[in-house]
């Protein structure tokens, strides 16, 4: 099964030829996309020259293509297979929606299909670790999770190491399944990574998708949620912390095309740069409520803290509504420094200014971090926030 809007034939320009973000052209073939340029809406924030040729194919001149280095640890009731890009079940979550994701699909030597049997219930997470291929190499891959109906599982995808990497993650969530996903980009700071993530929701399926970006030179994640039947419930949560010289982009799409589904998006980020090396982040949240989706209930929020000079955050929520018969819809986004009144209050209680700042920033992130059901990972993300804060006065 392929996306209904998959196209073929002559290459088309990204950002053109469709009426809504939900109609974004998709294909498994890189040649179906024109090479992006800086004025294209989907690419206008990221510096294309920093993508090491992933966007235009010039990576082949300097980098050796290798399979993604993937390790999967899993409980009973889970099957792991190595397949090629033509595998229909691997493709079922949907086709790539931009040229880099299609490049990854076209160029990958092999892919991974992880099947969770129906009615599987496990307290032990499925751990997937993807390591960078190192300097001089570029790795491409695809990993699809096919979750059977009424299964209840936690999926942890961790990226680590160094290199240049582009991949596609697919999540097929069966009817009545409850799935928690954690995508942890814990790269070394010399890594470039672009990830396309397609999520297909069954009837009454529940998805809790958590994203964390703390490492990497350029990291761009694009999760997309589609519903196939009523009752789907998707929550997308994210945290990110950018230092000098880092660029993180979270660009998402929630496509409500069937009745009585829910979505909630909450991302929080902080930035600290300097005059020589700017820290930059971009968050683009697209939610589409089609005329065929009465009863939709959705809200999206993005909050950003600017901690130093030399930092810039772009926050762009987009809400397209084609029917007025909905339960609720809204969005909010903020970019700014933390509240001086909170700082004054803590200092008036005898807390030194530096410690007060740390407490405020940790509290800012905890609303998202504490929703991660894996205690060890939640504590690890808290530790990373503390480590980042130590750099401010270093």
From TrEMBL:
Q: Which residues form the SUF system FeS cluster assembly SufBD core domain?
A: 134-364
Instruction: Output the InterPro entries linked to this UniProt entry.
Output: Fe-S_cluster_assembly_SufBD (IPR055346), SUF_FeS_clus_asmbl_SufBD_core (IPR000825), SUF_FeS_clus_asmbl_SufBD_sf (IPR037284), SUF_FeS_clus_asmbl_SufD (IPR011542)
Q: Which domain of life is it from?
A: Bacteria
**Residues annotated as region Disordered?**
1-23
Membership in a protein family = Belongs to the iron-sulfur cluster assembly SufBD family.
Q: What is this protein called?
A: ABC transporter
Species of origin = Corynebacterium casei LMG S-19264
Q: What is the lineage of its organism?
A: Bacteria, Bacillati, Actinomycetota, Actinomycetes, Mycobacteriales
């Amino acid at each position: 099964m392929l996306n209904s809007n998959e196209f073929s034939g002559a290459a088309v320009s990204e950002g053109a030829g469709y009426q809504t973000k939900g109609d974004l052209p998709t294909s498994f073939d890189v040649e179906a996309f024109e090479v992006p340029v800086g004025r294209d809406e989907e690419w206008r924030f990221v510096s294309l020259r920093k993508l090491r040729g992933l966007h235009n194919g010039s990576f082949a001149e300097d980098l050796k293509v290798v399979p993604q280095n993937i390790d999967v640890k899993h409980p009973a009731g889970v099957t792991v297979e190595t397949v090629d890009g033509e595998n229909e079940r691997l493709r079922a979550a949907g086709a790539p929606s931009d040229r880099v994701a299609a490049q990854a699909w076209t160029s990958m030597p092999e892919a991974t299909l992880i099947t969770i049997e129906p009615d599987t219930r496990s307290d032990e997470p499925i751990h997937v670790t993807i390591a960078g291929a190192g300097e001089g190499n570029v790795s491409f891959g695809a990993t699809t999770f096919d979750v059977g109906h009424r299964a209840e599982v936690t999926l942890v995808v961790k990226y680590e190491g160094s290199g240049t990497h582009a991949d596609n993650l697919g999540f097929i969530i069966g009817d009545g399944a409850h799935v928690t996903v954690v995508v942890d980009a814990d790269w070394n700071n010399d890594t470039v990574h672009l990830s396309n993530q397609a999520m297909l929701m069954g009837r009454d399926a529940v998805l809790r998708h958590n994203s964390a970006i703390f490492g990497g030179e350029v990291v761009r994640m694009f999760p997309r949620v589609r519903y196939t039947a009523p009752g789907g419930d998707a929550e997308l949560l994210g945290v990110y912390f950018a230092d000098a010289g880092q660029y993180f982009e979270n660009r998402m799409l929630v496509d409500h095309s069937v009745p009585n589904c829910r979505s909630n998006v909450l991302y929080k980020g902080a930035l600290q740069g300097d005059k020589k090396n700017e820290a930059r982040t971009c968050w683009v949240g697209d939610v589409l409520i089609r005329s065929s989706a009465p009863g939709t209930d959705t809200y999206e929020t993005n909050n950003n803290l600017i901690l130093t000079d030399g930092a810039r955050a772009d926050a762009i929520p987009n809400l397209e509504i084609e029917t007025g018969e909905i339960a609720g819809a809204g969005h909010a986004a903020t970019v700014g420094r933390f509240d001086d009144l909170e700082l004054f209050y803590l200092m008036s209680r005898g807390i030194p200014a530096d410690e007060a700042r740390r407490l405020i920033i940790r509290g800012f992130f905890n609303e998202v971090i504490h929703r991660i059901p894996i205690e060890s990972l939640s504590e690890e993300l808290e530790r990373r926030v503390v480590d980042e804060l130590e750099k401010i006065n270093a």
